[in-house]
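In the laboratory, one determines a bound structure by crystallizing the protein with its ligand and collecting diffraction data. In a computational setting the workflow is compressed into a single prediction: the sequence and the ligand go in, and a structural description comes out. We illustrate the idea with zinc ion.
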Amino acid sequence: MKTCQRFAHIKSGFERDIRRLRGHAEGHQGSGSAKTSAKNAFSLKRNMARALNRHLDRCPECG
Ligand SMILES: [Zn+2]
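The predicted complex, in structure-token form:
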């Protein structure tokens, strides 16, 4: 599948945030904030899938 610049941009933005949250969760294992970060990383991943799907629906370049 071919994807455009904007798709890559959306994806890399989300991935950077997810990595940051995961890193925080790993660095603070067992703490409450680590649990929150892990949960946020999970929902961010879901948001990313939703945002990318929405983009694919509308973008004339991707497909
Ligand atoms: Zn696109």
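The two ends are 6 Å apart (CA to CA). Keep in mind that any predicted model is a hypothesis to be tested, not a measurement.
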